[in-house]
Write a structure and sequence with these properties.
The chain is of the alpha+beta class. Helix content is 20%, strand content 55%. It contains three helices and ten strands, in the order H-H-E-E-E-E-E-E-E-E-E-E-H. It has a ten-stranded antiparallel beta barrel with strand order 1-2-3-4-5-6-7-8-9-10. The protein is globular, with a radius of gyration of 19 Å.
Length: 193
């Protein structure tokens, strides 16, 4: 029995030790290229959900985002509508440091968020006080965003506390002009049927 437990432990350690973390540089050259200030300027809509560490769906929400770019700073005004009726708002102030590097602040973000882009990908990390019931938990977000053809931006964020993942946020962002293109396409398709 002890040999079986020891062997299983070694296999798990070996598998986790061999699995390398995703590297942002691996996405260099991938298209379409993600430029935050281009994607988020104007109106953007997002749909998201939060799953806990056991895979249970805990929250669903929609976000209306208005973005403005002044040449050095991207301001994102995010209005959240949760399926349970709660509403929230976050305003990000994001500075472009160089071609691939961004920093950001918001009222509920602790310190400064940092992000880098390569190709179609962004890795964005920050700490925040996450509202939970009547209180809040200090958690770390590790966001990975990937721009897809057709203007859809997919986001998977690992949420952790004390180094342990407590859940995952999944989001899909769409630009207003792509939504109207999609609506026109569906209208034309229905007319052709």
């Amino acid at each position: 029995m002890i040999k079986t437990v020891l062997l299983a432990s070694l296999v798990i350690i070996g598998l986790t030790g061999c699995s390398g973390a995703m590297k942002l540089e691996d996405f260099e050259g991938r298209e379409p290229r993600l430029v935050l200030e281009d994607f988020f300027e104007g109106k953007t809509k997002a749909w998201g959900m939060f799953h806990d560490r056991f895979g249970n769906l805990r929250r669903e929400f929609e976000v209306d985002i208005t973005g403005s770019w002044d040449g050095t700073t991207l301001t994102l005004d995010e209005e959240f509508d949760y399926a349970d009726g709660e509403q929230d708002r976050r305003v990000w102030t994001i500075k472009k440091i160089d071609e691939n590097t961004y920093t950001g602040t918001a009222d509920d973000i602790l310190g400064v968020a940092s992000g880098k882009t390569f190709g179609n990908a962004l890795n964005w990390t920050y700490d925040m006080d996450l509202k939970v019931g009547d209180g809040s938990w200090r958690v770390k977000f590790d966001d990975w965003m990937f721009l897809q053809p057709g203007g859809v931006l997919l986001n998977r964020a690992s949420v952790s506390k004390w180094g342990f993942e407590i859940g995952v946020v999944t989001l899909s962002f769409s630009r207003a002009e792509y939504e109207s293109d999609s609506a026109q396409f569906n209208e034309q398709r229905r007319a052709a049927e």
